[in-house]
Amino acid sequence: MSVDSAQIQTTPETESTSLRRVVAPFQGPVLRESLSQLATSFGGFFAVCTAMYFAVDISFWLALALAPLAAGFLVRIFIIQHDCGHFSFFRSRRANDAVGFACSLLTMTPYVSWRRQHAGHHGIWNDLDRRQSGADIYSSCLTVAEYRALSPGQRWWYRTTRHPLVANVLLPPLVFLVLYRFPFDTPKDRKRERRAVYVTDLALLGGLGALGVAVGFDRVVAVQLPVITVASIIGVWLFSVQHRFEETWWVRHDQWRFKDASLLGSSYLRLPRVLQWFTGNIGFHHVHHLNPRVPNYRLQACHERIAPLCRIPVLSLRDGLRASRFILWDEDRQRMVTFRDVDGRTDRWFSKRRIPAQSVSTDPAYTE
């Protein structure tokens, strides 16, 4: 993996100011930015989808060629939904919930239940002793020792379901199209949350049904299915690479530290500008974990502010694509490894370069 980083600088600021205090000024929404992002994201999505409906009458393949662009706008809408779930997109909780629900009708992701699941992720990320929760399905992993303790059949199943083609291509559409239609991990006593899932389903059924009556159900399938499929694949990849990459940081609960889990256990995925725009700056995931109340459009500025204070590992786009191969956490070598590496075979993509474990200032001011 190629590595770039900002060098540690010992200054009075780094000695006296915590990272959270440095990040704090960036939390909170800027209304004009939020409204602008809503307009460009929803406007762009509907414009491209409309073009696809016209194009499908000419050629299905012409419409299909536009699907990645529409999916890009849909990913951006998902990031807005994500921010609404953190109550960082608007100051009003009611406004966040209203816009978040509106986004969910396009992303096919129930707003309330996903918000709870994701909040759970922010309490357990990169903690080896708290992986049992379903809130971390995108980023949790087995250790090498745990994998070796499985039966041959269990190892085969684990390898099969974690194969990049299965985990990153086949399963994401099933999650968004099928699994999210049910309150699969919502406790039975959370009746309101479970009901919200079915309300989302009914709204989707009504909206897509009305669209089908207006333009034809075959055209709806030809347009919407490729878009949600591509968007789901991109979305799941983004979430998995945020905490599962070769030189990440996983520890046992008694060793878990907020600052290290944020800066070492969360990726900075440096994307080309156009991809950064479509993914709502979520590549600055280390900043997001430092303070989830920083809206996506302020993440880059916040990153630039903290970069001189600490060393931040950087993943390129190529690194991010390769990251899906790193499945197991090796507690002895303190890095993610591939199945091939565990089996004792040489992986030509395996990098021997390693970022020093102590890559963040150890000043007490940074200790949670």
UniProtKB/TrEMBL annotation:
The keyword Membrane belongs to this UniProt entry's keyword annotation: yes
InterPro entries linked to this entry: FA_desaturase_dom (IPR005804), Fatty_acid_desaturase (IPR012171)
Source superkingdom: Bacteria
Ranges that cross the membrane: 60-78, 165-184, 196-215, 221-239
GO MF entries: oxidoreductase activity, acting on paired donors, with oxidation of a pair of donors resulting in the reduction of molecular oxygen to two molecules of water
GO biological process terms, semicolon-separated: lipid metabolic process
This protein's UniProt keywords: Membrane, Transmembrane, Transmembrane helix
Domain Fatty acid desaturase: 60-311
Name of the protein this chain belongs to: Fatty acid desaturase
Organism of this sequence: Ferruginivarius sediminum
